[in-house]
Amino acid sequence: MPAAIREAIAAHARAETPNESCGLLLLDGDRGIEYVPAVNKAASPYRFELYLDPVRWSEIELDQAVVHSHLSSPPRPSRTDVENIGQWEGLPYLIYAVRTDDLAAWTITGGEIEPLELS
User: Fold this and answer.
1) In what order do the strands lie in the sheet with 31-37?
2) What domains appear along the chain, each with residue ranges and CATH number?
3) Cis omega before residue 18 (within 30°)?
4) Which of 28, 98, 115, 119 has the fewest beta carbons under 10 Å from its own?
5) Per residue in 47-60, pLDDT tens?
6) What global pTM score does this model have?
7) Which class for 30: exposed (0-12), middle (13-18), buried (19 or more C-beta within 10 A)?
8) If you compute the radius of gyration of the chain from its CA atoms, what whole number of angstroms results?
């Protein structure tokens, strides 16, 4: 995870406080190469509904990981995250914790949470 991308994720999360932020991390293999901020249509501090302009999304040809923030809880998937995994099941799922400035990555498959290493 390049430092500039991590900082873009953190800055977006801080800017969206008191609501969760969300966006996409564009991947080249297992390497993050760009953070694309999105809109949290839920406008909630407890959950997110990622919205990205459909034209912008259609222009993305790289694999993607979803990114969202937790305001006060650790960067671990919550029960809400697991229950609402939807199209992100089995894909990299990153969470930035605003309170502690921590970023962690996971996969969620069949209700099971597995950590991914960030470097």
Assistant:
1) 31-37, 22-28, 63-70, 93-97, 102-109, 112-116
2) 3-116 (3.40.140.10)
3) yes
4) 119
5) 999 999 999 989 99
6) 0.94
7) exposed
8) 13
